[in-house]
């Protein structure tokens, strides 16, 4: 059985939210969303956690989560930097944001040498997704045979505005055939529409950036980053996005992605107005016994 690593993407500021939303207290004892993800991953069997952050938030980040996490699991930080680009390219004047989720994952190439699961820092995925992903990755999947935990679109929306989701197509055999980033998604009656007024059923499978890979993905992302910068490297807001690159690899026959399913309800803090709802949901999860209070009490007993 392979060892497994959890990679947490936590470098974004959250421009729509207005601050470092990854560090917002939402749990009954002041927990942040990442606490729940780390707890669920450790309980599922992940052996190591790698946080992708910005260098300027390292200290508050460590104080908020790193000091607790290091008691239960091996952990490490890597830093996403706008200027970390291949030789021969320069950052265009006026650009301030890093290059997107594919660049973020690429930052881990020197510290991750096991099958690994990638998640967003500000999303609550539920326990089931971590269990199915760990079991898949721990049982020696072949190189370029990846996985994705899919969620139903209707279970991933915000009541306070539009969201962006990777809308997926899945074969009868359960493999991803295409994933396209959709912007401006919002529920209208019994369907969901995007900013181009395309309609999707509430049960449409979507990516929430819960991807499982083997380390060979790093070489592919390095090569593709060069092509991305050649095409869009002069733009101020272009993003090298993980779902898009995985989708291209599938079309080109360079990878297959098994779609694992989770029936858990996703939720997160996309907008500041989402916070009261998130706080209420975590309170209910404590009351029904899904989590101890505080969140790591059961891990402390096991340690």
Structural class call reads alpha/beta
How many domain modules?
A: 1
> What would you report as the Rg, rounded to the nearest angstrom?
18 Å
Largest sheet: 11 strands, mixed
Q: Would you identify the CATH H-level superfamily?
A: Spore Coat Polysaccharide Biosynthesis Protein SpsA, Chain A
User: Quick one: overall form?
Assistant: globular
The number of helices is 8
Report the sheet-strand fraction.
25-35%
**Can you give the helix content as a percent range?**
25-40%
What is the CATH top level name?
Alpha Beta
In angstroms, what separates the terminal alpha carbons? 22 Å
Q: Please name the CATH topology.
A: Spore Coat Polysaccharide Biosynthesis Protein SpsA, Chain A
The poorly predicted ranges are 13-18
What does this structure look like?
With 303 residues, the chain is of the alpha/beta class. The protein has one domain (5-302): Spore Coat Polysaccharide Biosynthesis Protein SpsA, Chain A (Alpha-Beta Complex). It is 29% helix and 25% strand. It has 8 helices and 13 strands. Helix 1 packs across helix 4. The two termini are 22 Å apart. Residues 13-18 have low confidence and may be disordered.
Summarize the structure.
This protein is of the alpha/beta class and 303 residues long. 29% of the residues lie in helices and 25% in strands.
Topology:
Layout: E1 5-9, H1 33-44, E2 48-53, H2 58-69, E3 74-79, H3 101-106, E4 116-120, E5 123-124, H4 127-138, E6 145-152, E7 163-170, E8 176-188, E9 191-193, E10 199-201, E11 205-213, H5 217-232, H6 242-251, E12 256-261, E13 267-268, H7 275-287, H8 297-302
Parallel strand pairs: 1-2, 1-4, 2-3, 6-12
Antiparallel strand pairs: 4-11, 5-13, 6-11, 7-8, 7-11, 8-9, 9-10
Helix pairs in contact: 1-4
């Amino acid at each position: 059985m392979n060892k497994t690593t959890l990679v947490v993407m936590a470098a974004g500021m959250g421009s729509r939210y207005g601050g470092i939303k990854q560090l917002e207290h939402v749990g009954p004892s002041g927990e942040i969303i990442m606490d729940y993800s780390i707890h669920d991953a450790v309980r599922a069997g992940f052996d190591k956690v790698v946080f992708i952050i910005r260098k300027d938030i390292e200290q508050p980040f460590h104080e908020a989560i790193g000091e607790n996490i290091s008691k239960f699991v091996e952990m490490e930080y890597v830093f996403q930097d706008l200027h970390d680009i291949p030789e021969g390219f320069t950052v265009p004047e006026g650009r301030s944001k890093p290059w997107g989720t594919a660049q973020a994952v690429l930052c881990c190439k020197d510290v991750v040498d096991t099958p690994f699961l990638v998640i967003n820092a500000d999303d609550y995925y539920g326990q089931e997704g971590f269990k199915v992903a760990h079991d898949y990755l721990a049982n020696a999947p072949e190189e370029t045979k990846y996985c994705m935990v899919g969620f139903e679109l209707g279970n991933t929306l915000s009541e306070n505005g539009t969201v962006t989701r990777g809308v997926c197509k899945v074969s009868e055999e359960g493999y991803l055939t295409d994933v396209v980033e959709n912007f401006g998604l919002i529920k209208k009656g019994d369907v969901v529409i995007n900013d181009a007024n395309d309609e999707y059923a509430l049960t449409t499978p979507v990516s929430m950036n819960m991807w499982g890979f083997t380390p060979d993905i790093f070489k592919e992302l390095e090569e593709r980053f060069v092509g991305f910068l050649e095409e869009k490297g002069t733009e101020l807001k272009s993003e090298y996005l993980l779902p898009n690159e995985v989708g291209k690899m599938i079309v080109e026959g360079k990878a297959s992605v098994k779609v694992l399913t989770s029936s858990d309800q996703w939720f997160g803090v996309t907008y500041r107005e989402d916070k009261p709802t998130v706080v209420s949901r975590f309170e209910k999860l404590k009351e029904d016994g899904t989590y101890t209070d505080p969140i790591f009490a059961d891990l402390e007993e096991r340690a």
